[in-house]
Amino acid sequence: MLKRRLAHAARLGTLIALGLIWLAPIYLMIVNASRPAGSFDPAHAWTPAGHFDLVTNIRLAWDKGQIGDSIGATFLYSVVSPLIAILIGALAGYAIVTLRVRHGFAWFMLIFGGTIFPTQMLLVPLFVNYSRFNLYDTKVGMIVIYTVISVPFAAFVMRNFFTGVAFSMFEAARLDGASTGRVFWRIYLPLARSALIAVFVLEFTFTWNDLLFGLILSQSPGTRPVMTAVQAITSDVYSGTPVPVALAIGLLVSVPAVAIFLGTQRFFKHGLTLGQL
Prior knowledge:
mainly alpha; flat
């Protein structure tokens, strides 16, 4: 009994220690983002400031970096691109697993094989062709690239999910007169709701946090992703942007991704289990 209590106390102490270590950077970020813009001192970074100027610092960064337009564009990319990608991925998984298209595994490898190439290899041809086809610095161009990047993972998860769905369900629906399209929309998609939400959350987070494609394929405030605007502000820390202002805007733009994960946590966990990741 004593050994069990000691083991429980040791586990609890370890978890508390690990939790404090994990929360320490968040504490530093909040405390220093709340300082007056010109009062940052590395020697007192752990000490809370006497004034709470977080809202003021966010407003300064918002105006300086034209964050409003970038956030609106990023919400568009982070919602539309994952939705299109998971639809394409679900269709691909349904065709390969349920409809059993000819050379299905080869089609899957063709879709998923694009992930083996480093992203950096795509930048020069993307920039050249985006400029050639007038897609550079356009919302359509950004939606296209984020959709293309998101499709392989969506197809991978949905293929795994549909593998676990009994084929007899498809056969029964077909015997009842349902078309293959109706079976997909009315049976398979509702069954895959948790997996679809899990993929959407991951793809939303990836798109929201993207910096590389935003730097290469966009430049105007109304088109560039918000992380590109944040990078422009934070890279100016040593020549003009106060540290509390840079930390405040970094804290603000992290909220949507955290909020959507916390809001869909139950579906996310269940979807990953169903997707056999």
